[in-house]
């Protein structure tokens, strides 16, 4: 009752196709999950976005589900971030120029996939029970090493301890910084060391989720809605991977000069009279508020 048996096959491959731009799978559910409203038919798409960015999208084949937008998707034609090597109408590169190798099962086999560098080093390999229901999704993949960073925003050590079980919760809340607690932002992206260098994996999903790092080493993603939409990013260095991530989601805006320095908190004024006195003091000093 507490784990998936080794022969568990929740979905099998109904159709598989590959071309120079990527690959596509159609899955059919074989074993329902214990959660309500399982998705019976699933579409899995792999697309080479550039030589060093791979897009993996896992969606309901029969009906649309919630997807947030990205900076790169909202930009007008001709002004794409530099990570995209082609225009919007033909965005993507061919398999020959991409630095990825996609390994897929054959028709009729259980659903899984493996992503490697073209030189052979492992990046992602799915493992365990794949679940796709209306309000609970789960996908696990093996990690190439125990060197893992990211999955913020949390106040704790920079490196995630992949030698033991660690759960990170993504659900923004206005909470004072506290050890091992979810805070103001959600960045479901990690940076990892593989045998060929550094890479990052970003899950583009705005729902609440738990991310479980386990000592295999492996990682399990558990959002409570939306879809699985991964970006796998290859960089020559950690900074290079993070630059690719910033091109996807956008960078921090430049604050106005008057906003730099000390700030007023929104709480702890005690009474309405104290709050009003603070406002009047700010206006008298000519400080924007």
Automatic annotation (TrEMBL):
Could you tell me which SUPFAM superfamilies the record lists for this protein? Galactose mutarotase-like
Domain Glycoside hydrolase family 31 N-terminal, residue spans: 45-209
Q: Which residues form a coiled coil?
A: none
Q: Which domain of life does the UniProt lineage start with?
A: Eukaryota
Q: Which Gene3D superfamilies match?
A: Glycosidases, glycosyl hydrolase (family 31)
Q: Which GO terms describe its molecular function?
A: alpha-1,4-glucosidase activity; carbohydrate binding
Q: What is this protein called?
A: Lysosomal alpha-glucosidase-like
Q: Name one GO biological process term.
A: carbohydrate metabolic process
Q: Which organism is it from?
A: Plakobranchus ocellatus
């Amino acid at each position: 009752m507490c784990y998936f048996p080794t022969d568990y096959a929740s979905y099998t491959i109904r159709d598989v196709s590959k071309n120079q731009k990527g690959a596509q799978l159609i899955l059919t559910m074989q074993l329902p999950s214990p959660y309500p409203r399982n998705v019976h038919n699933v579409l899995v798409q792999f697309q080479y976005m550039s030589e060093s960015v791979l897009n993996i999208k896992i969606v309901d084949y029969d009906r649309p589900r919630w997807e947030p937008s990205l900076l790169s998707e909202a930009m007008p034609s001709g002004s794409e971030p530099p990570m995209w090597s082609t225009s919007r109408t033909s965005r993507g590169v061919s398999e020959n120029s991409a630095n990825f190798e996609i390994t897929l099962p054959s028709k009729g086999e259980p659903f899984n996939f493996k992503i490697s560098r073209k030189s052979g080093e492992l990046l992602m390999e799915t493992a365990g029970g794949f679940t796709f229901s209306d309000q609970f999704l789960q996908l696990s993949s093996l990690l190439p090493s125990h060197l893992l960073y990211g999955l913020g925003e949390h106040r704790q050590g920079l490196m995630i301890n992949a030698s033991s079980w660690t759960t990170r919760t993504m659900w923004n809340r206005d909470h004072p910084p506290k050890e091992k607690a979810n805070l103001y932002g959600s960045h479901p992206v990690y940076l990892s060391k593989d045998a060929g260098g550094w890479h990052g994996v970003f899950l583009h999903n705005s729902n609440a989720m738990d991310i479980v790092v386990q000592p295999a080493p492996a990682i399990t993603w558990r959002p409570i809605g939306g879809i699985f939409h991964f970006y796998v990013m290859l960089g020559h260095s950690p900074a290079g991977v993070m630059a690719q991530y910033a091109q996807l989601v956008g960078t921090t805006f430049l604050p106005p000069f008057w906003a730099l320095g000390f700030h007023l908190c929104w709480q702890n004024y005690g009474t309405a009279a104290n709050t009003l006195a603070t406002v009047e003091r700010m206006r008298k000093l000519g400080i924007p508020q």
